[in-house]
Amino acid sequence: MTTHNQDKAIDEKFCDLPSPPAILIQLIDSCNDPNVSFESLSTIIQQDAAITSQVMAAANSPYYRQWNEFTSLHHMLVVLGIKSVRTIAINSAVQQYFSKLSDAIGQSLDLIWSRSLFCAFLCRSLAELTAYKTPEEAYLAGLLHRLGQLALLQKDAEGYRQLIDGNPEIDKQLEQELEQYGVSYPLIGSQMIDQWQLHSFLADALRYQYEPADRILDSSSLVKLVNLGCHLALGEKKPADPVLAQADSLFGLNQSVVEKLTAESYKQAAESAGSLGIGFLEEASDDKREANSAAHRSALGERVKQAALFGGAVTPPADKADRQTALQQIHRDLELLFGLKQICFLLKADEQAQLIPYAPASRGRQQQLAELSFTTETDRSLAALAFNNLIQVYTGDETHQANLTVADQQLMGFIDSESLCYLPLAAQEQKVGVLAIGLEEDQFPQLEAQLPLLHLFTREACETLLRQQEMRRSQQQLLDDERAAFHLEARKVVHEANNPLGIINNYLHILGMKLGEKHEVQEELDIIKDEINRVGKILLRMRDIPEELEQQEKGLDINTLIKDLHKLFQSSLFATHNINTEVDLDPEIPLIASRRGHLKQILTNLIKNAVEAMPEGGKLSIASRDNAYLNGKAHIEIEVVDSGPGIDAEIMDQLFLPGKSTKDSSHSGLGLAIIKSLMDELSGVINCTSNSNSGTRFQLFLPRSTRE
């Protein structure tokens, strides 16, 4: 029977294909074993086409495909991890148990499974005999060669069971499939594998599995291996003459070699089935087969119950994981459990009536996605309607299509889908957000059938997200308490230490005046003063630690910083140099996004420069002003003005360059250069005007940015 003239594409996206319950039981039990190895899991999985296809689909999905393409089952299991494999197994068990599919197709399913397993061993033996480069790929191809039959069973269990029973010969069976469904199972299996986009002839091998030998003589080795394996698997232990002719035509194999290979493969498949307690082909009577099937279904029901009781049907992420990691894990589980790939989370903002979109599969476009806004103050968007009323909303419904907003449509386009189903995310009487599921027009009925399990999963996932949120709040509260305690203690230490330091500094100044400027100890006194100032700076840094942390979260209070500096210098620098001060602060200045340490260094340098410019005393003014416009943009302005003699014109030309000092030659001239560098880091502007009559005025313009 040829299949080359079939070009009809499959309409359904098949999932949840049936597996023998015995294999599901063994796989679930193995995944629950803490000492299980990937080798043992691979041994179980490679006996069943349905589970293998799910593993291959998951491992070659975009989430994992970014690293490499996988055709080795062992490599696929390593990439997925035992947790994901367990999710696949439990999902298959849950779906199969509740659908009661195995009640109607038990015998047909066993027959398909037996033929698939037999063909897998045949293909691997043929691959090894003919030195094919990857026998493992040939085994997978043989195992999957009846994948299309599983899909048809899932679509029409009773109808397809009768078709198989009424057409024992493969040619008649394929003809009946074309007549009844418009497509035969080789093409269905081929197109299912095509969806994984493998760079392999695996899909072709399934499509041309029953082509005559003369049509595939020049095709790839995998196509010929699977073709011969499929024909051999139809003949039980002894190949028929036409199949022997096929073996000779394709690979030049004689009768004795083919018969020996077939018998050994049959024995291997029978032993594999026996280890699971499954009758292989004709070796089990109908009564025994039915008894085993009933026992397996009962045991499978127990595994499903256990999974439900202990939360095994879903795999929520660890509570300690960050939210992004948690959402990625939930997305991965949604794909494994329900086949949902095109999804987006719309999560409630902490203190705003807004839903923030996040799509784990669109890492590089998250910033673009964040531009979409879904307010929850009204039911304006369908996303908000689902969130506010805790209802499921499908954009394909006529009642909702009229209320579809542009934001809904943009989200639909972002995740590349024809329609959206919004499912509310809530648990513990708290609203977490909305799950937006992208669907094609014909997928919604399939999703509706999965809704009970999907609601169970989303509730578990929401509870995990809420636990994470509560844990983050507790950790933040603990950090705030520790910061406040440290802040208070630091202020006490600074306050207690500043008083004696100020007194020492004053007495040093008085002592220096009594001894006279030319006394030989003046140099030592200056050293002592410098060291006292250094101690004061160290104390200030200790006080700044909690303030810096606080400012990073709440923003910088410029006026408070100026008041603190004024108070610090009032009893030391200003008092000892006979400086009168005036502070004029604009109370309307908001908290801005800037760096406290940088601005404090800038103001400290400017204040010290101003004091040193007035050795005989004088007046220092510090002022702040909101909404000072510069180049059309709002800024915060800070002024530091002294009544000193001003700056020479030749220095003003290169004021902020290193080496240009406004003081005597004993200074390095780095102070103003440092100030300019720090202002550049703050994206600010510094300006200076100076003359001998009015002194020197420095103006600082900081961006009026109230958010990072």
Enumerate the spans where pLDDT stays under 50 for 5 or more consecutive residues.
1-13, 308-320, 665-669
Tell me how many strands there are: 11
Largest sheet: number of strands, sense, barrel closure: 6 strands, antiparallel
Average pLDDT works out at: 78
The tally of helices reads 29
Distance between the termini: 69 Å
What is the element layout, followed by pairings?
Elements: H1 21-31, H2 38-45, H3 49-59, H4 62-65, H5 73-80, H6 82-99, H7 101-129, H8 135-143, H9 147-155, H10 157-166, H11 170-181, H12 185-194, H13 202-207, H14 213-216, H15 221-233, H16 241-251, H17 255-275, H18 286-309, H19 323-338, E1 343-348, E2 354-358, H20 366-369, E3 374-375, H21 382-389, E4 393-394, H22 398-401, H23 406-414, E5 419-427, E6 430-439, H24 444-515, H25 522-554, H26 558-576, E7 579-584, H27 596-612, E8 618-630, E9 633-642, H28 649-652, H29 671-681, E10 685-691, E11 695-703
Parallel strand pairs: 7-8
Antiparallel strand pairs: 1-2, 1-6, 2-3, 4-5, 5-6, 8-9, 9-11, 10-11
Helix pairs in contact: 1-2, 1-6, 1-18, 2-5, 3-5, 6-18, 6-19, 7-8, 7-9, 7-10, 7-15, 7-17, 8-15, 9-10, 9-12, 15-16, 19-24, 24-25, 24-26, 26-27, 27-29
